[in-house]
Design a protein that fits this description.
The chain has 553 residues and is an alpha+beta fold. The chain is 46% helix and 15% strand. Strand 4 and strand 5 form a beta hairpin. The longest helix is centred in the N-terminal third of the chain and has 53 residues. The radius of gyration is 53 Å and the shape is rod-shaped.
């Protein structure tokens, strides 16, 4: 119901769902009254939402930033990995929820503001259509009084739940909305005063008006027709705060749900991160239990992920360390044992020698020099073994294997009165370190000379084989018992026929290490009383494309 002042109550005849004038279009009659030159029009500049935007928050001072950095560093140093990982997950989750919620809130708020403006613009277009095409129901002619036009427009408009309307003239409310309309604009004196004193009477505007009651998004349409002395203002306004209220409640519920989600993520994440970091804790505990006296403990491996790979890597490292420590202890024990004998011999002879007897002094001197030479040989061999594990010990280059075989034979001849020969010669090029291979080859020759008789045959040879390059030394010596064939390559190990004064006990160990540094192996075939054959096998991956058939002598 609309109650214009001084008029009886009039029923609203259109549907309750309509917000547009529902009268059928009429033929526009000729109007004799003259309309004002400035008809109702929207002010484009006034259609934007008003409000005061907060400026950017001032940046923190340098002192505060420094304190924050120190605090962050202290927290990173004192927090556990589990806490830091969970904190990072919660921070990222909270940031994601905050960004998503803020973006959705801003979009929804913008849509609500846009919907209010669009509704107000549609109402103005309907009002303008009524002005241009409508007929005054009293006179059955075109409207000549603005108040009557506004009255009919208010009759044909059904405001939304948070929308209200009034008609004003001379700063006073002259038309009231139906009592069913919940938003009563006439009850807000600040709004009435704003429209009366600050609204532009010459143009249509859509603007935001903030009062102590609420904030309005209002359409103000000043209308003055030919019979009017003063304009009448048609005011249609939304309660913007109420329109935003449901959105605020929705996002308050979203914030509560987000908080619950973060709590759930925190509880589940604490358990999950703890389970994921269990191998690392086990690794730490194992590392704490391992000492230099016991490196046998290993970490159980389960799964096939990054942590499992880390566990396998640490276990492999522990195996290498255990092997290195065991080898080091064994070497020190063996070296101590080997050096103790020559030192005891030298010391005993020096203590018992007769300084007044030149012959005795000469004999003791010879024994001491002999033992010192053996100790020097031992030290040189130990230095060689120590250098095998260092980078650059082996420096491969392309070598003519046939020429290398001849060179080894030539260098072997002065080592003993033997019948020297070549079993086979491989005419091929191979990638190897000629100096180290020659050293190993000659060591095998020395070993053959040591355990063979004068005039017996010692042969060297080389041959290409499907398994690689074979380099060997064959002798007709005393042979090696089967029980000794495996251990003679160990440090300071000697066969049954070995004699302590004839070497350091590291010769075959060095041979095995040099060949191993080339990726190869040493094979032994020996028969007691018939001789031995030591074969160095260099793998195929060291071979160069330039190879040819072997030549036999």
């Amino acid at each position: 119901m609309i109650k214009p002042q001084g008029r009886p109550t009039t029923e609203v005849l259109h549907s309750a769902h309509s917000r547009r004038p529902d009268g059928a279009p009429h033929t526009r009659p000729t109007r004799s009254p003259t309309r004002p030159a400035a008809g109702p029009q929207l002010d484009p500049a006034a259609t934007n939402l008003s409000g005061t935007a907060d400026g950017p928050a001032p940046g923190a001072s340098g002192k505060r930033r420094s304190i924050w950095r120190r605090l962050s560093t202290a927290l990173r140093g004192s927090w556990t990995v589990r806490t830091r990982v969970l904190g990072a997950v919660l921070a990222l989750s909270a940031l994601g929820l905050l960004v998503a919620g803020s973006a959705a809130y801003a979009l929804q708020r913008s849509d609500i503001n846009s919907d209010m403006d669009n509704s107000l613009e549609r109402n103005f277009l309907e009002f303008e259509s009524l002005l241009n095409n409508g007929i005054d129901p009293t006179t059955r002619e075109d409207f000549t009084e603005a108040q009557e036009l506004v009255f009919v427009a208010m009759q044909r408009t059904l405001p939304a739940p948070n929308e209200g309307m009034v008609g004003m003239r001379d700063g006073e409310v002259v038309l009231l909305a139906n009592p069913a309309v919940q938003l009563r604009l006439e009850d807000d004196a600040e709004l009435v005063e704003f429209v009366a004193t600050q609204a532009d009477p010459s143009r249509v505007s859509i603007s935001s008006i903030a009062t102590t009651v609420t904030t309005y998004r209002a359409l103000v349409v000043p209308v003055q027709l030919s019979a009017d002395m003063t304009p009448t203002q048609y005011v249609l306004a939304y309660d913007a705060r109420a329109e935003h209220g449901q959105l605020n409640q929705t996002f308050a519920a979203f914030a509560l749900i987000s908080f619950g989600t973060l709590v759930f993520i925190g509880v589940v994440g604490w358990l999950l991160v703890g389970n994921l970091l269990a191998p690392i804790r086990l690794l730490r505990n194992t590392a704490q239990h391992i000492g230099d006296s016991d490196l046998s403990e290993r970490i159980p491996v389960s799964g096939n992920d990054d942590l499992s790979d880390l566990t396998r890597t640490v276990n492999a490292m522990l195996e290498r360390l255990e092997g290195a420590f065991t080898s080091q202890r064994q070497l020190l024990d063996d070296v101590g044992h080997e050096l103790r004998t020559p030192i005891t011999i030298v010391q005993g002879h020096l203590e018992l020698q007769d300084s007044a007897d030149p012959a005795d002094v000469t004999a003791v001197r010879g024994i001491a020099l002999d033992e010192l030479d053996r100790m020097r040989l031992l030290v040189d061999d130990l230095v060689t073994l120590a250098g095998i594990t260092r980078p650059g010990f082996v420096r491969p280059e392309t070598v003519d294997v046939g020429r290398l075989t001849d060179d080894v034979l030539d260098k072997s001849r002065p080592l003993g009165t033997r019948r020297w020969t070549i079993d086979a010669r491989a005419e091929a090029s191979w990638l190897l370190d000629p100096r180290r291979i020659t050293q190993a080859w000659l060591q095998l020759v020395v070993n053959a000379v040591k355990f063979s008789d004068e005039g017996s045959t010692i042969a060297v040879g080389s041959r290409l084989d499907p398994g690689g390059l074979l380099l060997w030394v064959r002798d007709e010596g005393i042979g090696i018992p089967g029980e000794d064939q495996e251990r003679i390559f160990d440090r300071f190990a000697r066969g049954t026929h070995g004699r302590r004064t004839e070497g350091s006990g590291l010769g075959l160990t060095i041979v095995n290490a040099i060949v191993g540094a080339h990726g190869g192996t040493v094979h032994l075939v020996s028969t007691l009383g018939r001789g031995s054959t030591f074969t160095m096998v260099l793998p195929l991956d060291a071979r160069t494309p330039d190879t040819s058939e072997e030549v036999r002598d």
